[in-house]
Amino acid sequence: MPVRKSALAGNDLRVALLDAAGALLHDEGPHALSTRRLADLVGTSTQSIYTLFGGKQGVLRAMYREGFDRLAQHMRAVPVTDDPRLDLRGLGDAYRASAKASPYLYSVMFERPVAEFECSDEDIEHSLSTLYALADGVQRAIDAGVVGGAAAFDIAVNLWVAAHGFVSLELSGHLLDTSDSRYNAVLDAALAPYVVSQ
Predict the structure, then answer these.
(1) Which structural domain, as residue segments, surrounds residue 11?
(2) Are 74 and 104 in a shared domain?
(3) Neighbouring C-beta atoms of residue 198, cutoff 10 Å
(4) C-alpha angle with apex 16: 12 to 17, nearest 5 degrees?
(5) What is the pLDDT of residue 3?
(6) What's the predicted TM-score (pTM) here?
(7) Residues 6+ apart with CB under 8 A from 132
(8) Is residue 59 within 8 Å of residue 82, measured between CB atoms?
(9) Closest Cα to residue 19, out of 31, 5, 33, 7?
(10) Which residues pair with 195 in a beta bridge?
């Protein structure tokens, strides 16, 4: 049965290909991810994939970066309020929401489901923009006098590790309690050593 040609073009085609690649990885494993299979799934040509990404490695690189771009979008959507500690909670919630909205990209971001994909230095720098954004939120809390005792970046790393650990276990089905209250308790525990007594 011939594949119906996609009406998608430009960024819409790019995003459809990345999401389809993620679904292939999740459902069938790395062996299933080929330019031919991906083109068939989306209803486009392999030439379109080579034009957009340069091949399979380019698809994986784009998935990695797209995952962090989507995380950055979620973080930018968190409003800045007069309560920087509440804003930190919002950034933690954004991390989890982004991972749950695009779990296939999250896997490429952190789990290396395709062993031959290697991040470049530029890829790593791109990914760190979200950590720097979290550090900016921590700095606001330090400047407001509600958090202290360590550098903003160090506190941000600890918060990121806590959120990442919970979310990774949640997505893999290894947590019995994946409630919002449990997640919030993990974030609170990670921040607790730095909270300034009022």
Answers:
(1) 1-54
(2) yes
(3) 5
(4) 120
(5) 40
(6) 0.88
(7) none
(8) no
(9) 33
(10) 147
